[in-house]
Design goal:
The structure holds two protein chains of two kinds.
Chain A (H helix, E strand, L loop, with lengths): L2 H13 L9 H17 L15 H4 L22 E6 L2 E2 L12 E5 H6 L11 H5 L7 H9 L4 E5 L7 E6 L6 E10 L4 E7 L5 E10 L4 E7 L7 E10 L4 E9 L3 E10 L5 E11 L4 E10 L5 E11 L3 E10 L7 E10 L5 E10 L5 E9 L3 H9 L4 H17 L5 H17 L2
Helix pairs in contact in A: 1-2, 2-6, 7-8, 8-9
Chain B lengths: L14 H12 L11 E3 L6 H10 L4 H15 L23 E3 L14 H9 L25 E7 L2 E5 L2 H6 L3 E4 H7 L1 H7 L10 H9 L4 E5 L8 E7 L10 E6 L4 E9 L6 E4 L2 E6 L4 E8 L11 E12 L5 E8 L4 E4 L2 E4 L5 E10 L4 E4 L2 E4 L5 E11 L3 E10 L7 E11 L4 E10 L5 E5 L7 H9 L4 H17 L7 H8 L9
Parallel strand pairs in B: 3-7, 6-8, 7-9, 8-11, 9-12, 10-13, 11-13, 12-14, 13-15, 13-16, 14-17, 15-18, 16-19, 17-20, 18-21, 19-21, 20-22, 21-23, 22-24
Antiparallel strand pairs in B: 1-2, 3-4, 5-6
Helix pairs in contact in B: 1-11, 2-3, 3-8, 6-7, 9-10
Classes of the chains: A alpha/beta, B alpha/beta.
Chain lengths: 427, 506
Amino acid sequence: MALPQIKADATKDRLIGMAIPACGAWATTARQDALNRLIAMGLPHKRDEYWRYTDPALLVGTEVSPSDALRTDTPIFMDKDKVRLIFVDGVFDADASDDPTLEGVEITRLVDAQAADVHWAQGLYGQLETAGQNPVDRPLAIMNTAFATDGVCIHVTGKPSKPLHISYRQSSDASDVVLHHVVKLDAGTELTLLETGTPGARSNVVLEADVADNATLHHVRPQGRAHNRAVATHLFARVGTEATLKSFTLAMNGKMTRNEFVADIIGDDAVVHVGGVCVGDGKDFHHDDTVFITHDALNGESRQVFKKVLRNAATGVFQGKILVKAGAQKTDGYQISQSLLLDEDAQFLAKPELEIYADDVACSHGSTTGAIDETALFYLRSRGVPEQQATTLLTLAFLAEALDEIADEALAEELRDRLEGWLARHG
Amino acid sequence: MTALDEVQVKDGVDQDTVDAVSALSGNYKYGWETEIEMEYAPKGVNTDIVKLISSKNNEPEWMTEWRLSAFERWQGLEEPTWAMVNYPDIDFQDIYYYARPKSMEEKPKSLDDVDPKLLETYKKLGIPLREQAILAGVEGAEMPEEGRKVAVDAVFDSVSVGTTFQKELEKAGVIFCSISEAIEKHPELVKKYLGTVVPPSDNFYATLNSAVFSDGSFVYIPPGVRCPMELSTYFRINAENTGQFERTLIIADKGSYVSYLEGCTAPKRDTAQLHAAVVEIIIEEDAEVKYSTVQNWYPGDEDGKGGIYNFVTKRADCRGDRSKVMWTQVETGSAVTWKYPSCILRGDDSQGEFYSIAIANNHQQADTGTKMIHLGKNTKSRIVSKGISAGVAQNTYRGLVSMHPKAKDSRNYTQCDSLLIGDKCGAHTVPYIEVKNNSSRVEHEATTSKIDDDQMFYCRSRGMDEEEAVALIVNGFAKEVLQALPMEFAMEAQALVAISLEGSVG
């Protein structure tokens, strides 16, 4: 059977019994539009070019593959003063969360925003996601727009004194979570957004971020440590003049992770950095970073820095693209994806792409894969460093460039310690 | 063409480069046509046409069957659309699949019997079918004392009109003839190797080619033989509305060596023409093949009218241990290029190299690159690709490096640079990297800033400023690539040396 037909049938089957959640007029319109788009596009299939290296079966199937819930919230960023918003199995838990009152930020639960007939989120919900569908289909994000059951809408009007922390907890081994967050930064504002933990046995999370002129958004996301979880995330961003967006993701463990990052640079002199570290052990580890950065303005700077450490048949995937549109002169685009394969069976699959329509730009990409440098290891051993410790040291050195993408040093240090612990346990 | 000197060129791109690109792609020198009486098969493709082509070549039944099964498969296939090229739909029934000069009805027994008009055509192209020491037209090329010999197989539309130096090659045991002749005279070799590297099921164009290929070249180098001269095939499309589907099969038996050159041109015409070739190379233990191409098909006019659609499948299979293949290509022609010369590194310690310079100007679109499939242990590959875009052209590097689990201790290095001249063109890079074992190293780089620090330091310590040093190193690098080309391509190569990739992007 031809692929479009297979996809159409699978999508039809998947949608049986699924209904758009009840909301106000604007949200119903946005969700209905998404449902129509989803039916026209079809859910992803492993024969799709964009899913060449990752089989989406676990993410799209009707059945949720169970994943043990780690019932306690992993303590993280405890030293940081922050406002915590807690979601348990994809449902906002007001009692467990901190009081969401914070100067310079206005926080509304998505269900409340969508129950209203008028809300600022109307201008963003599903809008950045829709823009991000061109030129590549991202049907999981469309599905999210149609069926998301919860999330937060964050309107940043100033420079809040502390970070917002979206913290996920999983309590059921079979929870299937669909969350959608909307973040709007007014001109000249700043926000640090932390997103931590495992939302559910399977989760589909979309974050739409509008970063207006001169605004800054820092996003740091350690993705939890549940072994059998399946995660699909999308971050859609629109970045204005002299605005900055920095996003960093850490993944340890995880049967299936697909993180898509889609940024549109529409204002001059904007900066977008996206980084990621993943460490995986075992054939039940599959991690996919898919990045698409579009430069549509002058003098933009973008960096993609992704590092992976893989062992025991773990699989790492990187698909990165820099698109420089005609007229986006003086763009500085950098992309690096590197993998360290700690033993014979691990694999790394990469597609680092450039598409350039402007002549006065500096764009480069690099990708390397290989084992630990034997010479460096020998050097350390000959100085009396035990092999395990030497390997950890060299691995952390390899990961350092990506961790450097995190602006807040305390956060970076904590993630580094976690990595060190993981490497010690998986040595 | 759009005069490149009218284009605002950004700082860092030197004028020599602009001039060289302009000279190479500006005035198409080979756009004239030979007036000669032709014989055509009816337009379109169907089983009768496939049978007709087969019977024109006096093929045995197994060959006809092979073609027919490919044709049957082709009817169920769809044209690939993944390449970054746009062109109007091709009406595959509006093409002549077989065209040969009337005078070729009786195969000439020797070159003396070939129609003088055909000989004149090749002479005008600088490829005289005389057994002389060196190809004409290579001005400025120095003549070695004992003379350099190049054997030529000349393919005119659908048929090979003659092959030179056959006798002398025979003495060395080398078989060099048209593929139609090989099917007649060496069926056991053809049957053993044809379709084993590019199977008839490979892809849309390769399958079509398997059904309707009319001629091409065949090379067999016996064990331990170093081919005494360079071999070359020159393809000329002359007839209008005709597709050229040639098939080349090269077999380098154990411990042998051959250098093979390929050239191609076509007249200027308003309508686009299709060229879908297949090249298969089999390399046994310790053997080495160098395959060089200067692709200079008519690129279309400055408004994008006409030109050749060049959809080519080329693949080398390094079957034996320590076998080696080197692809070198200079792509300056064709309206649309879709071409990925590939290496299957099956034998342990085998090596594949790919050097490419692709220049796209005006409305040209090139989507080209290579595949390096590492299967054997300790295999090595190197990819150096330089893409240059000017006018409103689009130039894409698309490549695959694949390290299979058993390809332990293998190595790949890839470098692809693109240069844009003017702000209306595009340059794209689409590499696929698949690594499935950890003792192999794969590096993909695409920056000019990654110049070797030691080389920089050396130049700087001799008093050069940074810019000079970079220019010297980059140019030196381009030269190194160009020196991989045989001397017969000296003219094109000389012009290309002026190209600097300073200011290029990854």
